[in-house]
Amino acid sequence: MTGKKVKTDTSARTRRRRAGRARKQVVFKTKRRASAIPGGSGSPWIRQALQAGWRAGNTAREAEAETKLLFVESHLQRTFSEWIHATMKSMPEYSLMKRMSAAYVQGYNEGAGSMVGGVPLPLQGSAAAVVCASSEEDSLDPMLAELERLPLKHIILVLNGSRDNSYSLARSHPLVTAVYYPELLGHDVGRSIGARLTDADTVLFCDGDMVIAAEELAPFIYAVDGGCDAALNDLSGYLPLFEHQDEVTHCKSYLNLALGRSDLGASSLTAVPHALSGRMIREIGASQLTVPPKAQALAILHGYRVEAVHAVDVFKGNRKRAGNTGKRNAVAELIIGDHAEALEELWRQRYAFRSDTGAKRKEVASRRNAV
Predict the structure, then answer these.
(1) Which residues of the chain have pLDDT under 70?
(2) Is there a single domain that holds both residue 311 and residue 190?
(3) Could you give the 3-state DSSP secondary structure of residue 348?
(4) Are 304 and 185 found together in one domain?
(5) What does 86-102 look like in DSSP terms, one character per residue?
(6) Is the same domain home to 327 and 219?
(7) Residue 132 and residue 86 share a domain
(8) How many angstroms separate the CA atoms of 76 and 235, rounded?
């Protein structure tokens, strides 16, 4: 009987030792994996994200099949969002959030034995994307694939004047609602149409002629979800000296200067990617997006939060066409005219404000003199 008791105790100790070694191995592997994450494992938040992702990945085998769900509904997106909201008191800067998201995905995939390639974000509201395209089948398919790696409820694709296989490609993406116009509308009109067709809290705007990685699009969604109304592409670092800039860039900079926002440099709603809050779109009107500089002026004049949040080099990937190359080309002329319209709106609203202020001052002065 005594021998049996000793044998039982030894067996129990063995099981505890094995469990301890297993836990140590998990911790060791977790720390070792962190070195493969972009930016390293310097922050304890990165290590925690990696471990939390591994734990969530272990439960994914019993969760619904990831391949049958949109990314916004996936187990990965849901568990990451729940973990962030339960762990962090306030949302960090995107630079840290990007690393935490990447670490969580890496841990999740290793825990689940899968290869999910999305970019989870802890969004408070809903998000959607509007994409304008015209005969761009070569870049459209991979661009839509990148958008599908983000937690979007839907993608509104405005196809206009398309003469290739773009519509058929779009139909292969379950997240996409395609709107087709046989004639060319231009990007600005297309964005206005797309904005009318979504009720999302955050709307990301892209073009179908350039492929931008989901990780580079996520900051715009993240910023608007965090309270920004217009998250612009910060192009300042890609511009030459002022004397070498073209007239379009000068117009963008001058408009921001006139609006008292020299900090924005040449950042503009004319350039993609950018994101807008659904609240701002509804309040200033989606129709205003047909003239992006005017919409930007109205946003700033009405006190909406406008920021240049992230830099994406769109000069390299911008598709060269007959209408957008050469000095004073058709596209440049259109954009310059849009800025003239925006400046006209600025002067009109400022004059009206000063006139109202002047009338009130006269009224106050007359009452004071009467006394």
Answers:
(1) 1-42, 61-68, 317-328, 352-371
(2) yes
(3) helix
(4) yes
(5) HH-SS---HHHHHHHHH
(6) yes
(7) no
(8) 33
Quick count: other Cβ atoms within 10 Å of Cβ 12?
Answer: 10
What pLDDT sits at residue 370?
Answer: 52
Residues 68 and 138 in one domain: no
Count of structural domains, the chain: 2
Alpha-carbon distance 270 to 233, whole Å?
10
Q: How far apart are CA 79 and CA 77, in angstroms?
A: 6
| Spatial distance between the Cα atoms of 189 and 35, rounded to a whole number of angstroms | 46
For 271, residues 6+ apart whose C-beta sits below 8 A from its C-beta are 232, 233, 235, 314
Interatomic CA distance for residues 91 and 85, integer angstroms: 9
Residues 45 and 118: their CA atoms lie apart, in Å, by 20
Question: Which residue range is the domain that position 315 belongs to?
Answer: 127-347
- What whole-number distance in Å separates Cα of residue 52 and Cα of residue 31? 13
Domain annotation covers residue 153: yes
Which stretches within 186-230 are classed as H helix? 187-196, 214-225
Q: Report pLDDT for 69.
A: 73
